[in-house]
Design goal:
80 residues, 72% helix, rod-shaped
Length: 80
């Protein structure tokens, strides 16, 4: 996928994994941080998707309650 957040997350995690593999004295701690970061990022991405979906649903509900939204209409006192 080419979504900017996914590209960023992939690059960030690959850097973290590389650091974890090249630092032998801090390896276990770094791997734990990578896992924690991945979990937090996954939860954040999931929540963002959920919120976006809910907002779009509410937007659709509001548009439907107004008959589809901006249909143009006529000017007051005009012949259009």
């Amino acid at each position: 996928m080419n979504h900017p957040w996914i590209v960023y997350l992939s690059a960030y995690l690959s850097i973290r994994v590389h650091r974890a593999r090249t630092a032998p004295s801090r390896g276990a701690s770094a791997v734990e941080w990578v896992i924690i970061t991945a979990i937090i990022a996954g939860v954040a991405l999931g929540l963002a998707t959920l919120i976006k979906t809910l907002v779009e649903q509410k937007q659709g509900d509001i548009e439907n309650s107004f008959g589809g939204g901006g249909g143009g209409g006529t000017k007051p006192g005009g012949d259009e």
